[in-house]
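TA notes. Do not distribute before section.
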Amino acid sequence: MITASDLPDTIPVFPLPGALMLPRARLPLHIFEPRYLAMIEDCMKTKTRLIGMIQPRETPGGEKRLQAIGCAGRLTGFSETEDGRYMITLSGMSRFRVREEVQGFTPYRRCLVEWSPFGRDLSREDETDPGFDRPAFLAVLGRYLTTLNLATDWDSLKEADTELLINSLSMLCPFTPEDKQALLEAPSLSTRRETLVTLIEFALRGGANDEVMQ
């Protein structure tokens, strides 16, 4: 297991709009761009095999910047297709705050990061949400999935671990990148669940896809 002392100061980052990684969750990715194929190959040579998932953002002047907070995942699954693409799985380890982007000779982006604000993320124990009302939550979720014409395994949802349920839905639901960022930055599982419910209720009230929650 990775400990706080193992976390490197600099990590490669993968800016991908709408892709949310959370601690103790898993994110499958399909890698085909040459720069990110190189990133995976370099990552596999390191001790920690960490890659930072982060939301890109564009400034009013058109400059491509990164959000201040992302989440690093450890490369735990890897397969290669016949045509040279990679299918990987990242296991979420810890969020990080970007201190600065590192200029160098790699074709992919790297950042100097700070881990200390998110020391609890490396805990081996799941987070708890004492105020979680599962029946009420599933009722709201059911209405939301109906509007999307999606089916689900309700028996599994009724039995799922609370953290796994909330984090998986945060990652899978089709929210805007800005909304995904709000879910990432939630300071606790309870706050993330409240944010998730707010986003679902906003969508049920007819919020447009291009509207941003304030």
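Switch to the second chain here.
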Amino acid sequence: MGKTQQMLEQEPIGKLLLKYSVPAIIGMMVNALYNVVDRMFIGNIPGVGPLAITGVGVTMPIVTIILAFSMLIGIGATTNISIKLGQGKKEEAQELIGNSISLSVVIGIILTIIGIVFGNSILKLFGASEGSLYYAKAYINIILLGTVFNIMAFSLNSTIRGDGNPKLAAIIMVVGCLTNIVLDALLIFVFKMGIQGAAIATVVSQIVTALWGLLYYLKGKSNLEFKKSSLKLNKKHVKTIFAIGCSPFAMQIATSLVQVISNNALKVYGGDLAIGAMATIASIILIFLMPIFGITQGAQPIVGFNYGCKQYDRAKKAFNISLIAATIILSLGTIAIQFFPEVLVSMFNKDPKLMDIAINGLKKYSYMLPIVSVSIVGSNYVQSVGKAKTAMILSLLRQVILLVPMIMVLPKFLGLDGVWIAQPVSDFISFIITGMVIIIEFKSYEKLVDCKEDDIEDSYEKYCG
């Protein structure tokens, strides 16, 4: 048994979560800051800030689609690597790394071509007006040129964590973020490149992150050996990556769909400034949600390995600790939003009209934020134990199945406030359903534990060696 496998099997769950989640949280926060920092700088461009941030708001669905494919590959590969290691299949775990790199390149190129060729039509469909189209196009065309590096950076960072080196993954992300911040300031305000400067800064920082991740494997410093032959796409591996990665992928695609529907509703009931306000609100909420995604990413290899080894109590404990930590973070975030909304919104833009709309929206949008922890941690747990279909449905509940009808119906009665309130209503119903699924999942373990050893399909030795 390897050192990493032994640690996942025997080390206290709380200690393991700290070891894996803290670097993942840093990585997710840094990943969020790529977009958040861009919006902060763009929103404060003299003279055009409000309209420029509206333009960025229109591009949010496209950026989310790119993130969806990043998570499809990165989380799909990393979760499978953890499960394969738990099963003692090191060779297959190594092959998954090469396949994830190839998928990043292929999918990245396809998205770039589609985005640039059909850019105008897509942006108008996503809510761009004649006033905001210029800024939206100037920003997203450059972002699209860096799609391959964007996806690869996320994917490699995820697999590096799964390879047992979460600290390096965090360092790479921090360096990339700092690069983005410094370049943002230089290109926007020193070289007067405006919104295009923000996009260039983002792409350059993603290139740095992706190349560093590649060097980690090419120089042979990784625990899992990288072989060039693993770059050839294997149908079996691609299917397993997509099977596990489809849940977070669906969640992000759903988020993109909601953003499109939301942008169009905002345009009808509040105009361009309402779209800019939503871009601000989404950025603030993202700051509080990213630590939760970091916790769940850190928990994935722990849950996946111990579930594979049939150590269900350890898998459940990882869930419980993750849920408590996530709830505390989101509760603190809600307090900050409800009591200090002006401070948070003013970081992105100080235009009085935009601030009024954003503050009102932010306070209503975050009503149910603390209980969102159950939906996120719960769906991630189900995903981590390999139940991809159930996880995907749970993910879609909060972002599509419930939210889309709310956005389409509530504004007809409440106007712009209906758009803001749609999310907390969806969050509450999703909380109840996800909680029930987790309770049923845990109860099923009692039957598995009571089973005779001969009735268990795979023995402990097969999983843990």
